[in-house]
Every structure is written in structure tokens, then in C-alpha cells.
Amino acid sequence: SFDAHPRKESQVRQLAWVGEGVWVSIRLDSTLRLYHAHTYQHLQDVDIEPYVSKMLGTGKLGFSFVRITALMVSCNRLWVGTGNGVIISIPLTETNKTSGAPGNRPGSVIRVYGDENSDKVTPGTFIPYCSMAHAQLCFHGHRDAVKFFVAVPGQVVSPQSGSSGTDLTGDKAGPSAQEPGSQTPLKSMLVISGGEGYIDFRMGDEGGESELLGEDLPLEPSVAKAERSHLIVWQVMYGSE
């Protein structure tokens, strides 16, 4: 065992593991902490509060502070859900961009090997540093805290066959399932977030609720639209390498 936070009263809330790194979130805290899975060395701190405030502005967040309520690694990205309903997708890289010194990580050479049966790399070959310079904040979020993330395999459907609605198998990676000018077949992953309510942070509460969401659901009239649980789904395309 080891101390994941200097404050003794703090509590570990979520863990997300890939390669030789474990990301740890602390209850009522906006900072993620990366530890080496074998040596327990503290490798990186990432505070998402300044990033969320810069993207959305403090007016959209109200008086509530940013805290991390959901965490998951998928498609070589760290998916972070907050108590404000904001969702951030952060690419993982084997180099610590913040310090610019690869010598801070254990070992001198780290090689990454892909697994054809999953989106994870082979354990023991990869330190999952967060690349905040390429982090993406989704303007589609929840009105309340993000409760969970789930990732399931999807299907790669070509635009031609998808428009006709006849060929939805996606069993074979033909030219339509490849990047232009590339022979690397693309894979699809569906990332799902769950939480209460839906909001478009670009529009706020006035127009944040889409007319297509929840209008025809057979729910009790007493359940207000803002209180209904929602699932938000993203399709993530990535190469097999």
C-alpha cells in the first residue's frame, strides 16, 4: 500500500489502469494523479479545473467546483466525467509532455504493442501520460454528475452502404472501412456516458434540451425532463495498430 494523496482524510474514488500506469481520482478533487503500477512512483498530476473553466467559462459552472465523478480508459484515451456533467477525452502518450523530460519515467525505452482483440496495449510496455494539449471537451453533457462510462465494440459502416441501409454487417474491412490512402483498417468503439439530464453547454439551459431527446418516451408526467436519466453515445474510430 502507499499514500495516493498527501491529505490523510482524502478518499480514493476511481482507478483507471492501462500499461504500467494507474490513474487515480480523489473524492471532491479536480486533480488526477498517475502512479506507476509496479513501483508506485508518482508520475504526473493533471488538474482539469482550469481546462474546464477556460473552455466553458465560470458562468456555465455556477458556484459548484469541478470534481471528478467517473473515469475510464478506452481507445488509448482517458475519459473523465465531472460533477458538473462535463466530459473530457484526453489522449494518452508515452511521453510526459508537461515536463518535456522522458527521463522522468522508469526505464529508458518503452515500446508499445497493440492487442488485436481489444483497444488496450500490452501491459508493462506503456506509461499512459495525459496529453492535455490535445484534450477534447464535449459540449454535450449532463445536467448533473456523470455517473459512469461504458465502452463497447461498434461496427464500421461505409457511407455508401449506410445510406441505403442494406449492408450493416461490417464483418470485412473493405476499402470503405479504411482511411483514405491507407491500408490500415479502422475499428469502431462506442463510448457511453450515463447521468441525469442532458445539456448542450454551448446553448445553456434555455436551448440545451434537444427536442428529439425524450419527447416520445412513455414516462410519467411527474418526471421532469431535466431529471430524466440520459445516455450519451460517441463513436470513436481508431486504427488497429
Provide tags for this entry.
5-stranded antiparallel sheet, 7% helix, 4-stranded antiparallel sheet, mainly beta, 3 helices, 241 residues
How does this model look, in words?
- The protein is built from three helices and 14 strands.
- It is mainly beta and 241 residues long.
- The longest helix is centred in the N-terminal third of the chain and has 8 residues.
Overview in brief:
The protein is mainly β. It is 7% helix and 35% strand. Strands 5, 6, 7, 8 and 9 form a five-stranded antiparallel beta sheet that branches. Strands 1-2-3-4 form a four-stranded antiparallel beta sheet.
Topology (SSEs and partners):
Blueprint: E1 12-18, E2 21-26, E3 31-36, E4 42-47, H1 49-56, H2 58-61, E5 68-74, E6 77-82, E7 87-93, E8 129-130, E9 136-138, E10 140-141, E11 146-153, H3 159-164, E12 186-196, E13 199-200, E14 229-239
Antiparallel strand pairs: 1-2, 2-3, 3-4, 5-6, 6-7, 7-8, 7-9, 10-13, 11-12, 12-14
Radius of gyration: 20 Å
Write down how many β-strands occur, each being a DSSP E stretch of 2 or more residues. 14
Q: What fraction of the residues are assigned to beta strands by DSSP? A: 25-35%
As a percent range, the share of helical residues equals under 10%
The outline comes out as: globular
Structural class: mainly beta
Q: Major sheet, described briefly?
A: 5 strands, antiparallel
> What is the end-to-end distance?
35 Å
Low-confidence stretches: 99-108, 161-179, 207-215
Q: What is the residue-mean pLDDT, rounded to a whole number?
A: 74
What oligomeric state is this?
A: single chain
Query: Helix count, per DSSP?
Result: 3
Order of helices and strands: EEEEHHEEEEEEEHEEE
